[in-house]
Amino acid sequence: MTDSQVIEITEHLQILGFPLEHAVDCPWLAKLEASFGRRLPEPYRSLLEFYRFRAFDVPGFESFSNLGDGSDEDITVAPFKDPAVRDWLIPRGFLQIGRPDTGSYDPVCLDMRTRPDAPAIVRFDHEDILLNRSRIEPIVVAESFSALVLAG
Questions:
Q1: Mind listing the pLDDT tens digit for each residue in 115-146?
Q2: How wide is the angle at C-alpha 68 spanned by C-alphas 43 and 62, nearest 5°?
Q3: For residues 57 and 55, what is the distance between their CA atoms, to the nearest angstrom?
Q4: Per-residue b/e over 9-28, b at no fewer than 16 CB within 10 Å?
Q5: Which of 24, 39, 46, 54 has the greatest number of CB atoms lying within 10 Å of its CB?
Q6: In the CATH hierarchy, which top-level class contains the domain 3-150?
Q7: Cis omega (within 30 of 0) on the bond before 116?
Q8: Cα–Cα distance between 122 and 140 in angstroms, integer?
Q9: Which pLDDT belongs to residue 1?
């Protein structure tokens, strides 16, 4: 990851009308990574570490916020609220970072299984997870977090 990727993402989000605030520190990042059971990939990690932001949406995706305020839509709370979804995703290497921009409950995740340093972004049908269907396949949304945000 380069600083230029984070700058490109933040500039793009600001152009789209989503303000970001520079952060001095991110005391909840270590706890978040411990809850996920792994270090977050760049540039997503740096975005969380160095910026505070409300939920933003780009075509196909609505991010969780990163305010550390304990709200239901914050990255520190939202991926862990539904135990059935959480307990299915995390052990399989999927880290939920948002939902579709349609208002659907489907989880949109970093797919850490094959490329943990550059994970694809995938979506699952939440009903498949909740109904414990035997075959649940991810749908690729974007090749990376950068590609997802910059496509908007």
A1: 999 999 999 999 999 998 889 999 999 999 99
A2: 55
A3: 7
A4: bbebbeeeebebeebeebeb
A5: 46
A6: alpha beta
A7: no
A8: 4
A9: 46
pLDDT digits (tens, 9 = 90+) for 81-118: 999 999 999 999 999 999 999 999 999 999 999 899 99
- Taking CA atoms, 149 is separated from 43, 128, 141, in Å, by 11, 26, 11
What are the structural domain ranges in the chain?
3-150
How confident is residue 44, by pLDDT bands cut at 50, 70 and 90? very high
Query: Three-class SS string for the chain?
Result: CCHHHHHHHHHHHHHCCCCEEECCCCCCHHHHHHHHCCCCCCCHHHHHHHEEECCCEECCEEECEECCCCCCCECCCHHHCCHHHHHHHHHHCEEEEEECCCCCCCCEEEECCCCCCCCEEEECCHHHHHCCCCCCCCEEEECCHHHHHHCC
Q: Which of 143, 48, 137 is nearest to 97 (CA)?
A: 48
Rounded to an integer, what distance in angstroms lies between the CA atom of residue 152 and that of residue 131?
32
- Find tokens 């939202």 and name the residue: 78
Q: Measuring CA to CA, which residue among 96, 57, 91, 93 is closest to residue 76?
A: 96
Distance CA 138, CA 122 (A): 6
